[in-house]
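Quick one - inputs below.
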Amino acid sequence: MGEGMTRRDWIAGSAVALAAAGCGRPVRTTPSETTIVRAAYDQRLYETVRHVIAAHRLAVRGRTVVIKPNLVEFEPQSAINTHPMLVHAACEAFLAMGASRVTIAEGPGHRRDTLDLAEAAGYFQTIPGFEDRFVDLNVDEVTLVDLPQRFSRLNRVYLPNTMLGAALVVSMPKMKTHHWTGATLSMKNLFGVVPGGVYGWPKNVLHWAGIHESIADLHSVFPRQFALVDGIVGMEGNGPIQGVPKAMGVLVAGTDPVAVDATCCRLMRIDPMRIGYLRLASGAPADFAESNVRQAGEPISAVAQPFALIPQFRGLRLESGA
Amino acid sequence: MPTSKLLEQQNPDGGWPYRHGGSWMEPTVYAVLALTVAGDRPAADRGLAWIRTGQRDDGGWQVRPGVGESCWVTSLAALLPGDRLGSKQHQRAVNWLSANTGLESTTLYRVRQWLMGGQASPETKSPGWPWVTGSAAWVSPTSMAILALERENRLHPAPGLESRIEAGRQFLINRMCKGGGWNHGSVRALGYESDAYPETTGMALAALRGCQGREMNQSLDLALRFLNQCHSADALNWLRLGLTAHGRLPGGYAAPDRITYRTVPEVATCVLADRAVQGQSAFWI
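Output:
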């Protein structure tokens, strides 16, 4: 064991390395495309989002789109929840592209009163007809699903039919640090699709099965995803709840959540190679190397700002030039 | 709160959904309890029949038929009066509940902790209850289990029940947030203190009925502050129940108009809180 390394670190690190070596996806042959655009919470956001989504040429005409924001706490003035204006802008954009239905769906991990949470977060006020568009994933109808790739010891998991029936899953997280995983982005956001009505609040079964491994498991269930990360105001420090707002002024988007999350990490000056779930979900670290992600819009160097990290995560800091 | 809202939402199979769709145990038990205290026997009886058919061979219940294993909702079934549920079925529910603990209280977990270099959990001595088997104990399922077992122990005292209830209460005390009150059960993460929630504070206070001391007063004071600020029916219902359990709900308190009752459990627990304030509680004797 290395200096300062506990038995826990060694066992956990070995498990991630073994899983990454044995269960990863095939190495990609074409680079993923990720878009970074500057944005603010104002009326121009609607046009910006429309352009970003159109640029990725998503086939949604006549299909069902499910938008999964990150709704966590009753604090509308904080940077905890995905901003409702961004969610509304995405709804409008997908409807304009001909989607037959756009549903907003979330299953918070700690608070059970989901609609009240959405109301406090400004969703009712900002999104017309919100209640009719929204599904509480914690108490949706469920189906037991075999995990296509098994990174954790979970072989099967109950998932909401709303998510399973989506032609396109749109993960819309807040760009935040996270006190268990280092960063919470579009992939970690999928924890919210696991039904609390079946697993409880919190969804502790996922923690016992391994947080990084469970994130990679959930990612593997949804083959058609689009990630649109709310980095206009993110959260640094002790995220995902008690951190400090961080004004970044960007949206990050793409059809490959691994590449999108890796790009977000670089914007936050976090080394994506040190985020366990990114290593697991990619076929090889080279998959999300900066040189293997085709970057559209703003270059990373123009908008990156280091997010403050709690002491336990300072080792995640992206070194210059990495 | 009128019970007509509950009657409108009862499914043809006798159970209730959370909001719409198929029947689940949690909304069904709350609806049956609410209709029972309100005196609407026919609808409650149809709900009871649905509940009875869901009991599994091990004595527990799933969140809904065919989904998962026996779990925390067994504590809800055990809250139903034995003469209404069926005395044998009720006893099997109590037995299942008495034997269930969070994974961190098991020998297997202690060995694992040793291998991982961790310290023994205080939950080893004071086990709580998990949402689902194979995971840790948390505040809400522990509170509901205590309420169910305490009710049973009042009617049929047993040393085993008494000790389990006391251990569960100690679990809740251990999980109290620094400034009083409870959240889902995570007091601190990586050294950072976590904040309490109103709904879990109310629920834990109900489970700690009869307990006294400085920490309890701190939590009761917090619950009173929450009462004037909370945004949800779930929170308001449980705060009213928790404060009523300690005789601390302000006299003549009226729920604010801003609260919306959207789900079956919210409507039903509102009925139950109304009745508890009037001295007729389904949660304690």
